[in-house]
Amino acid sequence: MRLHGLCVINIDMKIHEITEGASFYGYYRDPKDPSGKTMTYPDDMEFKTPHRSNANARMLLSRIGLDPDFENTGSTPIDDFIAATDKYLRMNVSDKDNPYYDEVEMYDMEAKRFKKEHPEITHVGFN
To answer: Residue 6: is its pLDDT beyond 70?
Structure first.
């Protein structure tokens, strides 16, 4: 199909063909690794936030003042993440009807849930 100088892209993909994306996890140092370099997460951990594109994860991290390059920087200490989300929420309380506010609030609540239900978790991040 041709539209006078506009490019039309026919997207016919199945969901399993999309490989890029990130989910929000809670981590702690794996006690089985004597070097302390391996991070793991609880086996019974429930995830209540949506899987999202890497670009959306980077935008969220940037919005709350954290390094958006999560693919190369790794996880964030959970208390630092909660402090960043809390700061954003307090500074933007007048924008409660904004979808960006709602998104930050969702991840703030999820990090706090991780910390309450799994006190062993020390870090959070997208993976």
So the answer is: no
